[in-house]
Amino acid sequence: MASLKDVARLAGVSLMTVSRAINNPEQLSEKTRKAVQDAIEQLNYVPNIAAQKIRGVSENTIGVLSFSTATTPFSVEILLAIEKTVRQYGWNSFVINTFEDDEQDVEEAVELLLSHRLTAIIITRHGLKKIKIPKRLASLSIVLANCVTDDLQVASYIPNDFQGQADVTHLLLEKGYKKPLCLYIPHNAIAAKERQKGFQAVWFSQKMQMYRPNFL
């Protein structure tokens, strides 16, 4: 495997110049950048990520702490969307799937995330729920996906369950249904409560009080 020294030797420049070409290419002339790039391509050189981390080099890497997100089809789409978006901006992502009710598992996941010296963290969950943010991650830039928290004031992106259920209820009414059976399980889930509110807002606004829906 080619090393940084091999690239420098082939390009006819110093090790420092190769390092700048990789990390701060705007500091070099076009001729020098091209010489280094040609050498990298010819040698099929891949930067040593571990070494960069030791030197404290930022890689624009986002860590994803996934609380069982990889266990359901819908939730997997969240992870795929994160990875796709990160790549579009030329960044990297690092995903760890864990189980939030296993404290040891979560602690090990946090340790692994921190060891990668990440730029930011996205915490996601397989079902919309209030979560506890691991204390060791609190100092990092955090965004939540499909979950909320009372621990910190952070951006949280969640599905609009209220509007989704409202749209479905409109469709039921258009098709002439008058005695729906509504299953909201589990009852204490944030999504279940929002969906029930969405249904009731539309159902009763259409003067359907005489047809009492069954809620389970």
UniProtKB/TrEMBL annotation:
Q: Which SMART domains match?
A: HTH_LACI
Residue span, HTH lacI-type domain: 2-56
Task: Decide whether keyword DNA-binding is in the record.
Answer: yes
A Pfam family cross-referenced in the UniProt record is LacI
Q: Domain of life, per the record?
A: Bacteria
SUPFAM superfamilies per UniProt: lambda repressor-like DNA-binding domains, Periplasmic binding protein-like I
Keyword tags = DNA-binding, Repressor, Transcription, Transcription regulation
Q: Which GO terms describe its molecular function?
A: DNA-binding transcription factor activity; transcription cis-regulatory region binding
Family matches, as Gene3D superfamilies? 3.40.50.2300, lambda repressor-like DNA-binding domains
**PANTHER family referenced in this protein's UniProt entry, alphabetically:** HTH-TYPE TRANSCRIPTIONAL REPRESSOR CYTR, LACI-RELATED TRANSCRIPTIONAL REPRESSOR
Any idea what this protein is called?
Transcriptional regulator, LacI family
